[in-house]
Amino acid sequence: MNEKVVLTGNQAIARGFYEAGGLIASSYPGSPTVGIIENMNNYKEIYSEFSTNEKVALEVAMGASFGGVRSLCSMKHVGVNICADPLMTFTQSTINGGFVLISGDDPGMHSSQNEQDNRVFGKFANMAILDPSDSQESKDFTKIGLELSENYSMPFMLRITSRLCHNRSVVNLEERKDIDIKAFEKDAYKYCMLPPYTEKAQYFMKERLQKLEDYAYNTDLNKLEEKEETDTIVITSGLVYQHLKEIDLDASIYKLGMVYPISIKKVKELSKKYKNIIILEEMMPFIENELKINGIDCKGKEYFSFTGEIQIEDVEKGLEKAGLIKERKLNEKQRLKVPSRSPQFCSGCPHRPIYDILKKAKVNVIGDIGCYSMGVLPPFEVHNINMSMGSSIGIVKGMRKAWDLAGNKKPLVAMIGDGTFFHSGVTGFINLMHKLDKNANMTIIILDNKTTAMTGGQPNASSDKEMDVSIEELLQTIGFERIKVLNQYSYKKAKSVIDEEIKHEGLSIIVATGPCALQYRMRHPHFYVDPDICISCRSCIRTNCPPLLMKKYDGHEKLKSFIDPDMCVGCSICAQVCPVNAIKRSKPDDDLKNK
Amino acid sequence: MDGKNILIAGVGGQGLVIATKIISEAALEAGYDVKTNDVIGLSQRGGKVYGSVKIDSKVYSPNIPHGECDILLAMEPMEGYRYSHMLKDNGMAIVNTYRIPSTSIQQEVEEYPEGMLADLKQKYNVSEIDVIKVGKELGNTKVGNTVLIGIMAKKLDIKKETWEKVIQKNVPEKFIDHNIKAFNIGYSYK
């Protein structure tokens, strides 16, 4: 087999796992790594799942490794925080079948709440870290990682970035190699991490890394590209290496495929040959610090940004600062001002009416992570706080206690989606019952659209296609009494329930249901505006549905609202908020009347 | 063919990902090295998105350096204009004229800019077309990107049959006919 195809980094990792004889892959969906598990479905030999959260996903993959098969676990960078507890012990124990953890880092925070550099996490956890620079390496490093993992009895991290997950580049396909399942042999020193067994494990962990550092001295994973008659060497890894290759630079390059551990012996040898060592890396000065703490003189972050993606232009600017290249003149930007364009709720999204209602209610709202995080953005600007997965439930309790102690009785609302609820909201809900003040005014709205919408509609415990767990029944089992279920498309009813529950002095939970308009392909006859009836009040416009716009009609002086029929999916919310019935359905139908 | 750098700009949800896939597979079929990057993630839905395709005998970075783009495919005029400084002098812009207003325009905080096309025409070669209109005539408004790819394909040294083969491979079976027609409308567009 010698077939060349173009693959994304995510597809290439899935392919690498397949070729390496991998059998069990788990994940929690999060940009940028969603495509890895989605592509595993193409290989019938592999069992893959989206677990309820990253901790569970890691535990599933750990179990598979202990069981003797090659396993993989993928997540976005912040997901590693969630699975940190089992991870820190897993790296102290041993593996049986090869194991690779994929951490999808997001320089520039394209779809993340922070920009943590998980190379630091890898080092913290005593894992080896591989850092690919294109799709071919993403595939190769997955395979090499699994193999080295077995050779050194340790879990490996494959650190990949958003740009690489989603880039497409040419990959050579190879055949799958079937790997024998290893027998599990009972050995408390290997698998039971309690004293007295753990002390030995500490030494084992250190020795493995030392051996791997010796391996790093002349592994093919790291590439030395030497130029003659230059006194400068650039040490780099990942995508920025490819950017560097676009620039005609009079310097040697040492490209690290394995960024931890680094062979200090090798770099010390290089430092004798070169006067200047420049470190080019995105986000934190990881390689730079590794060299500096080992007494190697080098420069890095004084030339390149500590945050955001480093683009080709940024590499040029940094090298210019370092005195290695001359300035390049860039084209000027546009003459006309280009308006901003932020992401927004889709046409027909069931969350939009809830945010319109909350905006009108003028309450303090604590948001969470999901599509509905867009409640932070204009025009709604409803969320006052938005932190991390599942945090809204714990935060609302803490804030309520604080306000009550200070005598502030203003209502507090918390939002959470169904995916987030099952990911890490449930424990917060159970904690809510603990020392609960009867009159503490908290309103929690669970937005149940039956899918993990933000990442493209993966199944979760709420999905009717999968486990179909009833959020309402689960909450009743925990002991919650005041739970209201409402249909998000039924605007007036929803508004009266939400307004009433906000006033209620005590805890109330609202489960607002409406299927994700994108995932369930909502398509009803579109609506149109009768400009003779429209009073230009902009009630419909404020719901922020994408097809709506104020427009000049012939024969009317004032701007009136207009609905683009090509974008409207017929959810009816604009018609429901119109005070004068100027918005009408293009064709009568019965399937979406107010229920 | 000399190397070509193609930048695609549009609004999240317009199909930028599949467009880069089609272009990259056609380039590989034609024997080139190719790299793309594009922005994914539902957090980008309705937001500004851009991607790149680089085709050459050997490609390193998937990103296009400022001012080194040969062809700009604008799936939406304002988004195309936003990234037009990435074009080379005398580069080519293929612009879908169907407008998608952003939130700030809908909420009357900012206005949709007028005169963008005239401005582009002063510096670049511009082809403009309303692909939604073309799509409606074909009975499918989702084929717009294929029309734009058709216009661009004419400028690249990749066989027409290669494009048609790759399009057939990448679109759902029941839409193949619509897409091939859409590609040909683009390919013969003056």
UniProtKB/TrEMBL annotation, chain A:
Catalytic activity: indole-3-pyruvate + 2 oxidized [2Fe-2S]-[ferredoxin] + CoA = (indol-3-yl)acetyl-CoA + 2 reduced [2Fe-2S]-[ferredoxin] + CO2 + H(+)
Keywords: 4Fe-4S, Electron transport, Iron, Iron-sulfur, Metal-binding, Oxidoreductase, Transport
Keyword Iron-sulfur carried by entry: yes
Function: Catalyzes the ferredoxin-dependent oxidative decarboxylation of arylpyruvates.
CDD domains, sorted: TPP_IOR_alpha (cd02008), TPP_PYR_PFOR_IOR-alpha_like (cd07034)
InterPro entries: 4Fe4S_Fe-S-bd (IPR017896), 4Fe4S_Fe_S_CS (IPR017900), HACL1-like (IPR045025), IorA (IPR017721), Pyrv_Fd/Flavodoxin_OxRdtase_N (IPR002880), THDP-binding (IPR029061), TPP_enzyme_TPP-bd (IPR011766)
Cofactor, how bound (note): Binds 2 [4Fe-4S] clusters. In this family the first cluster has a non-standard and varying [4Fe-4S] binding motif CX(2)CX(2)CX(4-5)CP.
Stretches assigned to the 4Fe-4S ferredoxin-type domain: 525-555, 559-588
A Pfam short name: POR_N
Organism expressing this protein natively: Tepidibacter hydrothermalis
Name of the protein: Indolepyruvate oxidoreductase subunit IorA
Gene3D superfamilies: 3.30.70.20, 3.40.50.970
Keyword Electron transport: yes
From TrEMBL, chain B:
UniProt cross-references to InterPro entries, sorted A to Z: IorB_Oxidoreductase (IPR052198), Pyrv/ketoisovalerate_OxRed_cat (IPR019752), Pyrv_flavodox_OxRed_cen (IPR002869)
Signal peptide per UniProt: none
Keyword Oxidoreductase: yes
Ranges of residues in domain Pyruvate/ketoisovalerate oxidoreductase catalytic: 12-187
Keyword vocabulary terms for this entry: Oxidoreductase
Transmembrane segments: none
Entry keyword Cytoplasm: no
UniProt superkingdom: Bacteria
Pfam family, one: POR
Listed PANTHER family: INDOLEPYRUVATE OXIDOREDUCTASE SUBUNIT IORB
UniProt protein name: Indolepyruvate oxidoreductase subunit beta
Source species of the chain: Tepidibacter hydrothermalis
